[in-house]
Design a protein that fits this description.
The protein has 221 residues and is α/β, with parallel strands linked by helices. It has ten helices and seven strands.
Length: 221
């Protein structure tokens, strides 16, 4: 069973999420009413996933995500947000969240998302990701060739990076490049290692910030 800590400042929401997840094969090992409690629970209980609300007292979900990531804790953070253009979500991705879902997500999809994140994959809805980033990242100046930040990548790794930046899953990347998923995972791991151990969502943010992908979905190369 996937172990989970649920962090939300509303008791009714916490209880509802706990019931939803427990009924679908997840084990809720703890709850938190604010970001500070979420960080403490992640340290104490080391759940596989922290389901994190964004707007909470004491310490908000973004700051809590940043602390969990910076501490090197094994827990991965799945951010829940009410609005599909919530400006805080972009900051949460930069802070190291493994992905995000809307609170209106159907229960089965939420449980699936928790398991996806626990398995080490990113949970990124391509259309929602692009909308969020395009809303909150200013268009970078045009760049010629490969941005310096990506200079360590091989041609194939750049192809993989580009597909990640457009929200493609490993299966979709494998189909696009006509290779096996195991090969894709190897390339993805190398890209992450060469770019400083960034999470997959952070790679998407980097792609926009360095101009590789520009608002509107155009590749920068």
């Amino acid at each position: 069973m996937t172990s989970v800590v649920v962090a939300d400042d509303q008791e009714l929401v916490r209880s509802g999420l706990e019931l939803v997840l427990e009924a679908r094969g997840c084990q809720v090992v703890g709850t938190a009413a604010n970001g500070r409690e979420a960080v403490d629970a992640a340290r104490r209980l080391t759940p596989e996933v922290v389901v994190m609300d964004v707007r909470m007292p004491v310490l908000d979900g973004i700051a809590a995500t940043r602390e969990i990531t910076a501490a090197g804790l094994p827990s991965r953070v799945l951010v829940l947000t009410t609005y599909d253009l919530d400006g805080y979500v972009y900051d949460a991705l930069r802070a190291g969240a493994a992905g995000f879902l809307l609170k209106a997500t159907p229960p089965d999809r939420l449980a699936e998302g928790v398991r996806t994140v626990a398995a080490g994959d990113a949970l990124l809805a391509p259309s929602l990701t692009r909308r969020l980033i395009e809303e909150h990242v200013r268009r970078p100046p045009p760049t010629g060739g490969v941005p310096r930040a990506l200079g360590a990548l091989t041609e194939r790794e750049l192809e993989v990076f580009d597909l990640i930046a457009h929200g493609q899953s490993n299966a979709e990347i494998a189909a696009a490049l006509v290779v096996g998923e195991a090969t894709v995972k190897t390339h993805v791991n190398r890209v992450i290692a060469k770019l400083g151990g960034r999470s997959r969502p952070q790679l998407v943010v980097l792609a926009y910030e360095c101009g590789w992908v520009r608002p509107g979905g155009t590749a920068g190369h």
